[in-house]
Amino acid sequence: MIVWNILGQFFHGLTFFALGLSVCFLHPTSKRVMLARHLSWLCVFAFSESAVAWYELLASFSPSLAAWPPLFPLAVQALGYAYFAAFGVQTLFEGEDSERQASRLLQGINLLWIAAFLLLGVIRAWQVEPSTVRQALQIGLAFPGGVLAAIGLRRRGRQTFDADLQRRIRGYLHLIEAMVALFGLLSLLAAWPGASAALTDVEPWAWSVIGAAFTWGLVRVLTTVQSEVERWIEGVERLQALSAERERISRELHDSIIQSIYAAGLLLEGVQNTLPRDPSHAQAQLQRVMERLNRTIQDLRRYIFDLRSDLPDANLCEGIEQLLHDFHINTLLETDLEVTGDPVAILSSERRRHILQIVREALTNTARHAQAHRVKIQVHYGDLLEVTVSDDGVGMATLPVSTGYGLRNIRERARLLEGTLRVESAPGEGVTYHLLAPY
User: Fold this and answer.
1) Do 27 and 223 form a contact (C-beta atoms < 8 A)?
2) What pLDDT shows up at residue 303?
3) Contact criterion met (CB below 8 Å) for 12 and 53
4) Which of 44, 45, 90, 253 could connect to 84 by a Cys-Cys bridge, CB 3.0–4.6 Å?
């Protein structure tokens, strides 16, 4: 039975230490979620609970630790329970101003409480019955903290999330609420006169189960909510990128295609007036109109190539091959694709589409401006994904793309991929787009 209690005490400290670590790692990325706004209070409680459990375990084996003042572990436990109760109170407040004021008030109360506790120990020379103090802490702080936290978390869960997300995390939320309430009730039961002896064998394992279930439920809730938030942000960024592309295409259509068609119409009006008087001159004008319309048709083909959205969603190399095939059909330029390294499936469809759109935008710039004869794409799978698009055209120094929408969109997509984009060019030496991104 001694070994059973030792293991229970160890896992008691371990589960609450894991809870504290989980809160430390998840809290910075979950601050925007109302439910997780006050987890820093819970972090202090979890580490304090873990420290007390492991101190009591080590003190049973180490005489030097056992010689420490008995109120020392109780002071740490008082700090943890005070922050646990403060966490429960904080969950009941609504509004940032109210939460901020309550946070300052509770911090001040906790500091006063701990200072008074330590002063009492100094005045009484630490000659205070530890069991009496522990019972007071469990009844006065742990029990109400657990009840308030359960009520507050239930209210926050209903107010924070929409119906669909609530259905997905409802079980985990109920588990967290049950564990904090059970922590408070078990603290009350352990402090009840005559109950300590009956709980001696099962109490460490009961705390361990509570800590493990609390940690698992909290991690599941926060990771699920965080993934939902990231998915929403990704959707917003995608809509922003689409909006920017539509604005860019509409402006370029107005500035080039519509203006070319309008100019062709004016030339045809001139031909209509010239034809009766000077047929040869009218024929020359008709030839210019035909050339202008042919260039406009080529521009329209390039825009259609740019607007096509039927990209394959399963494989990056297949998507690039299809882009090159369409590019060759529309421009009749020579194309080449080289893939090195060990191809790895990119699980995120959003990342695949960003990469394909970067390649498409680079090809569109080449077709529209570069006056190139050949385009080559190189894809290398290493620690990072390297994608290079190069042509043998006139070079960017003589092209109007350095401040255009195309290059701006490419850089924006590289930023969304958390990668880097390098553009290399010189007059008469073509343009090379070099993308380096995690995948």
Assistant:
1) no
2) 65
3) yes
4) 45
Please list, in sequence order, all residues whose beta carbon lies within 8 angstroms of the beta carbon of residue 154, skipping any fewer than 6 positions away.
Answer: 173, 177
**Cβ-based neighbours of 62, under 8 Å, separated by 6 or more:** none
With 0-12 CB in 10 A as exposed, 13-18 as middle and 19+ as buried, what is 242?
Answer: exposed
**CATH fit for domain 315-439, picks 3.20.20.80, 3.40.50.970, 3.30.565.10, 1.10.10.920:** 3.30.565.10
Is the CA virtual torsion 5, 6, 8, 13 positive or negative?
Answer: positive
How many whole angstroms separate alpha carbon 181 and alpha carbon 352?
Answer: 46
Taking 50 as the pLDDT cut, the residues of the chain under it are: 1, 309, 399-403
d(C-alpha 328, C-alpha 301), whole Å: 12
Q: Are 416 and 392 in contact (CB under 8 A)?
A: no
What per-residue confidence (pLDDT) applies to 254? Answer: 64
- Looking at residue 1, its pLDDT comes to 46
Of 91, 98, 101, the residue nearest 37 (C-alpha): 91
Check if CATH label 1.20.1070 holds for domain 2-236.
yes
So where are the chain's domains? 2-236, 315-439
